[in-house]
Every structure is written in structure tokens, then in C-alpha cells.
Amino acid sequence: MSGGWNTIESDAGVFTYLVENLGVKNVQFEEMISLDSDYLRQLSPVYGVIFLFKYPVGQSKPDDGNAVDGNFDFAAAENLFFANQVIQNACATQAILSVLLNRGDIEVGNDLSEFKEFTQQFPSDLRGEALSNSELIRTVHNSFARSSPFIDEGTRAATENDDVYHFIAYTTINGNLYELDGLQPSPIAHGPCTDENFHEKIIPVLQRRIERYPANEIRFNLLAMIKDPRVTAAAIGDVETLEREEQRREAWLWENELRRHNFVGFIHEVAKEVARSKLKDGGFDQWIEEARDKSKKRLADKKGGLADVEMEL
């Protein structure tokens, strides 16, 4: 069972407004277009990184109980916010919360503050249960799911033939770089790290992660959680940056609204109106015949193209 959680996209606009709707202040997401420490430094302050990657169904864990990269830190799990993922499709929001609720320099709002306080003494599996049962967090999460009348991702479990994707988080906590993955037994420590050198420390960790995959695997996505640029721009009077960021926010709002709607009914009504118009002016049969001729021509052209390919081979 998915518990009513739907898949959401790894998108800067989706994540930015998701956390805003949860009550978080002055946080924005930026897509990392390059695994370059200088580029990441330019986005400072960076609170953390959300990493999306293909997760092989049935992937086994190391037999020796050690992490593939870094070290399990079971003691840290008791002193920071770490929740095991116990429900399908919640990993995006869970990764985001893994950064938000472990930072002391982000204003997360009353609701998330109360949730963190309520789950503070829970073991990681019960924190995951509490997260999955949070009506507020689930409702906000699902409000950014792409609407589809054909797919219910909670009706079946993933199989080995499916492409399954997973979100994890990286952030600095108590002077260390941590990987926070709800499918792992504990946080994974990657060594000493501060906010000042996070941009240098995180890049080799990400590179090692990506190198585990075949060279032709390119389906990764990285989003940096940063301070809202509008705050700094307003403080220093940078009108150009402020206007540019406001325009981006407006574009994200529009895109998010489009995600909430499916257009099957609209397309159906348009098709009916076109057919009605053709019937009214007596051109319906001609319209159908022209469409049939075009389909035949496309099929013939396609067959001709395949023949050319066979000759070349």
C-alpha cells in the first residue's frame, strides 16, 4: 500500500513551493547543472543537496554490514532527525525533511517544528511511521503530484522490469557530512565537513555514487537547497536579481498549477466540437478520408525508411 502518497517530480519549482506550503521560510531549490565545487559555492549558503537516482529493485546490501561508501553512524541516528522510509513514494519529501529538520539555520515553521519535537525520542522506524501518517505533510506532498487519470501508483508493487527512482539527502550536521537515506539502517557519515567547505566535500561523494552505475546511465538529478536569493537581493538593493527571481517564482507557480490538472476532458470536448463542426458543414466524410490518406502515407514513408536502413546494413 502507498498510504495515499503519490510520486512527485524532482523539480526546483515543485520543491520550493512544497516547503513553502509546509511553512518553511526563505528556502529555494536550484538544479545543479554541473558537478563542480565552484558552481556550488556560488549558490552559498547551501543547506544541503537532494539526489535522485535509479534504484535497482531488489538491490542487496553489503553482507558485512558496512556502507558501500562512508560509515554507518548508528549513534548519530539518536541525536539527529533520521527516519526510515516505510511507505512507497514518500522519499522525495522525506529527503527534503532530512535537511530541513537537521538544520538550525532554517525557519521551518510551527507545524514542522512540532512534528520534529513530537518524534524526537522515536526510533527511526517509528519516525518513518509518524511521517507517513502526517496528514499535513502527505496533503502538501500530494498537491504537487502530476495529475493522471490513467495511473494509480499505489495499486501494485514495483517489479524488476520497472524503473524505480529514489531520493536521498546530503547535509552538514555537527561538523560532519551525512548521507540521509531512509532505506538505510542509519545515517551514513562521510567525514568532517562544515558549511564553508560543503561545496568541496560533497562533490567527490556524489561522483563516487554516480560511478557505481554504467557509463551510459545518465538518469540522475541534483537539487541544491539554498537560501532564497530574493532575501539577499532585497537586502543589498539588487533590483535586477530580485525582478528575475520574482519572474521565476511566477513561472513555477504556473507550472505547478498545470501539474494539478489533467486535460483529458478538455481534449475530449475539443474533439467533439471539431467533429460537430465538420458534421454541420458537411465535411466530416472528407475530413475522415483525408486523415486516412495521411495515415497511409506516413505508414508507407516509415516502411520505406526501414527498407533503406536494411539496405545500409
UniProtKB/TrEMBL annotation:
Record's SUPFAM superfamilies?
Cysteine proteinases
Its Gene Ontology molecular function terms? cysteine-type deubiquitinase activity
Q: What class of enzyme is it?
A: hydrolase
Residues marked Important for enzyme activity (site): D181
Which catalytic reaction applies to this protein? Thiol-dependent hydrolysis of ester, thioester, amide, peptide and isopeptide bonds formed by the C-terminal Gly of ubiquitin (a 76-residue protein attached to proteins as an intracellular targeting signal)
Q: Where is this site: Transition state stabilizer?
A: Q85
Active-site residue numbers: C91 (nucleophile), H166 (proton donor)
Q: Which PROSITE patterns match?
A: UCH_DOMAIN
GO (cellular component) term, any one: cytoplasm
* Residue ranges of every copy of the UCH catalytic domain listed in the record: 4-227
Q: Which Pfam families match?
A: Peptidase_C12, UCH_C
Keywords tagged on the record: Hydrolase, Protease, Thiol protease, Ubl conjugation pathway
Q: Which GO terms describe its biological process?
A: protein deubiquitination; ubiquitin-dependent protein catabolic process
Top-level taxonomic group: Eukaryota
Q: Which Enzyme Commission number(s) are on file for it?
A: 3.4.19.12
Family per record: Belongs to the peptidase C12 family.
Q: Which PANTHER family does the record associate with it? A: UBIQUITIN CARBOXYL-TERMINAL HYDROLASE, UBIQUITIN CARBOXYL-TERMINAL HYDROLASE ISOZYME L5
Full protein name: Ubiquitin carboxyl-terminal hydrolase
Q: Which organism is it from?
A: Sphaerosporella brunnea
